[in-house]
Design a protein that fits this description.
- The chain is α+β, with helices and mostly antiparallel strands.
- The protein has 2 domains: about 60 residues; about 110 residues, Thrombin, subunit H, CATH 2.40.10.
- It contains 2 helices and 7 strands.
- The protein has a 6-stranded antiparallel barrel.
Length: about 190
């Protein structure tokens, strides 16, 4: 009988050890998972913070109005007066773009936005008729979001802003996905 009691105690002891080993494994897994989640969250917060700080810096920086020396425009048909269908809004948001078919990416700023197009200010010189794939980043409330679109350069200024060494061009939207079109319309509604 004493052997049976000792066997049960030994079995109980091994079960306790097994239980504690499993608890340690689960605890290490949870600590690893929570640490990984916190690292990902922290990296997202830091990247968002840099985006917001860059945006705030650009707004606080006094941008001198550009004085174009010459503007190149594609000829328009019509009576000669400008016909705008959509209201335009002054913004100052980062845009990343590349020529369709090229993997070289450029950065700039959208300084004017409407439902049909945008005004891009950037260090890169673009040609009329050039097709761009662009990603516009913006802040709406507390959310940071992007809109992807394809656009065509319809005019450009033939000068360099001496203070910031930037070019300007007007681009009309060619292709915007339904989801991004909804984002753009919501954004413009909030701007009006």
């Amino acid at each position: 009988m004493a052997v049976g009691v000792k066997a049960r105690k030994a079995e109980h002891f091994f079960l306790e050890i097994n239980y504690y080993q499993r608890m340690v494994q689960v605890t290490f897994f949870l600590i690893f998972f929570i640490t990984f989640f916190l690292i990902v969250l922290l990296s997202r917060l830091i990247s968002s913070l840099f985006f917001v700080l860059e945006y705030a810096f650009q707004l606080s920086r006094k941008v001198k109005p550009m004085e174009p020396e010459e503007k190149e425009i594609r000829p328009r048909s019509g009576t000669g007066h400008e016909r705008r269908k959509y209201p335009r809004f002054d913004v100052y948001w980062p845009v990343q773009y590349n020529q369709i078919g090229s993997s070289i990416s450029h950065r700039g700023r959208v300084t004017n936005l409407s439902e049909s197009g945008m005004l891009i200010q950037s260090p890169g010189k673009m040609e009329i008729g050039q097709h761009l794939k662009s990603t516009l980043s913006f802040i709406l409330g507390s959310e940071i979001d992007t809109i992807e679109m394809q656009a065509e350069v319809v005019w450009r200024d033939l000068y360099v802003n001496k203070a910031w060494k930037d070019y300007r061009c007007g681009a009309k939207f060619l292709n915007v996905s339904a989801m991004d079109k909804t984002k753009l319309n919501n954004l413009l509604t909030n701007l009006s």
